[in-house]
Specification:
single chain, five-stranded mixed beta sheet, four-stranded mixed beta sheet, 13% strand
Length: 428
């Protein structure tokens, strides 16, 4: 694997200068874990979010390396914002102690634009693209070049009480109506999902906007659009928030509290990630027998939804002293066999489509066909180096959803997003 194009490095001196200044001002002294070990095999430092059984994958890749290198799993903080801050600060300081990076799918463009990660080329690139789902691959590209390898993906599903609702709703309005009828009957009725001022609210709105055919940004991610489809999504979100079927805690709700509230029997519907399934099986097996899953409802009942994807991409630091070995290590960690292992043992959906056909996936992922259906027609969050700034703007202006004024809010978002695009996303 060759070094990054030096001309590309020189194109954005302002962005690099901002990043360096940020690092010098804000980063506390941090001892880097060295990746060059005198007298022994090189250490490839993998900085990755907490994943319970990932060490077993690392151990297997180390065995396959046969002593040529040793991958060390450096566990990042649990919260995504804390993960990003740690990596941004260290990369802005050109820290050579980071080799392979586990990036949230929304960060690839930012890190690539700042020249912090290396392009995947040649056989490395071909191997990653072979059989990988198109949606996750889109999140790993920047300026039509591949800068990361999708390791796992994720999509939310609609979880519903089969004992209360005979068929899952096809639209949000149908779901609201069904919930109101259950409420009138004195039955569990709430539609539980994430409405706090954070990324979960952005994911919800992005799913509604894409499902309505809307565009937040133009196709190349350089201009704010906020077209008629995004206004319809604002109308839908405001109508849901004021319909009387949300939880009283909706405007403070994040993923795990939503799971716990549904698990307690309070809700008829839940929009959440697949992690809720094994948790429900363990915590309330009797309720679990009554819970089904379906594609998230659309804005129009005759138009299938487009559901926002999450996940983690593997990138190689521009400052790694062992780039070729780092690419090899990353390929091993995200190969088909290890994606299957991680899906079955840690509940993270694969990015390689063929893995879904593996027999072992049926028991671990009974909802796999619905997940794959959504993944084949996904929504991605705005692909831009300024995503972090745009996400902050979106969550602030959308909160609380009950106070949305669709056209006025769209105009406000268009202006604020245009300003956010100028930041290039290099923020602590």
């Amino acid at each position: 694997m060759s070094d990054p194009d030096e001309a590309r490095r020189r194109r954005r001196p302002r962005v690099r200068a901002v990043a360096a200044a940020t690092a010098l001002t804000l980063v506390a002294p941090m001892a880097a874990c060295g990746s060059g070990d005198a007298g022994g095999p090189p250490t490839i430092n993998l900085y990755y979010p907490p994943e319970q059984n990932l060490q077993k994958v690392v151990d297997d890749c180390n065995a396959q390396a046969q002593g040529r290198y040793e991958i060390a799993y450096r566990v990042l903080p649990r919260q995504a914002d804390d993960q990003r801050v740690q990596m941004v600060r260290r990369l802005a300081a050109e820290d050579t102690g980071m080799d392979v990076l586990g990036l949230d799918v929304t960060w690839t463009q930012e890190f690539a634009s700042a020249d912090w990660i290396r392009e995947w080329t040649g056989q490395d690139k071909a191997e990653v693209e072979q059989g990988t789902l198109a949606g996750p691959l889109d999140t790993a590209r920047y300026e039509d070049k591949l800068f990361a390898a999708p390791k796992n993906t994720n999509v939310q599903l609609l979880w519903y009480r089969k004992d209360l609702v005979p068929q899952p709703p096809k639209s949000w309005d149908q779901m609201i109506t069904a919930a109101q009828q259950l409420k009138d009957q004195g039955k569990p009725y709430q539609v539980l999902t994430m409405g706090a001022q954070y990324e979960g609210l952005v994911v919800l709105y992005n799913t509604l906007a894409e499902s309505a055919g809307g565009k937040i940004l133009n196709d190349d991610g350089t201009q704010a659009v906020m077209d008629d489809g995004t206004v319809r999504a604002l109308e839908q979100l405001q109508r849901f928030a004021t319909s009387g079927v949300t939880s009283p805690s909706f405007t403070n709700a994040t993923e795990d509290p939503v799971r716990l509230e549904f698990q307690s029997g309070a809700g008829a519907f839940q929009v959440n990630w697949p992690f809720v399934y094994p948790a429900l099986q363990e915590a309330n097996p009797e309720l679990a027998k009554q819970v089904g899953w379906a594609r998230i409802p659309g804005v129009d009942e005759n138009t299938p939804s487009k559901v926002t994807i999450g996940g983690v991409n593997l990138a190689v630091s521009s400052y790694s002293r062992h780039p070729e070995l780092s690419f090899e290590a990353a390929r091993c960690i995200r190969d088909a066999e290890h994606q299957k292992f991680s899906a079955i043992n840690d509940g993270v959906p694969p990015t390689i489509e063929a893995v879904y056909d593996e027999p072992e996936m049926t028991e671990a992922y009974p909802m796999k066909d619905t997940i794959l259906e959504e993944l084949k027609e996904p929504a991605t969050r705005p692909l831009t180096p300024a995503y972090q700034s745009i996400s902050t703007v979106l969550s602030a202006i959308l909160s609380p959803p009950s106070e949305i004024r669709p056209q006025q809010t769209a105009d406000e978002l268009r202006s604020a997003i245009a300003d956010a695009l100028q930041s290039k996303g290099v923020l602590p």
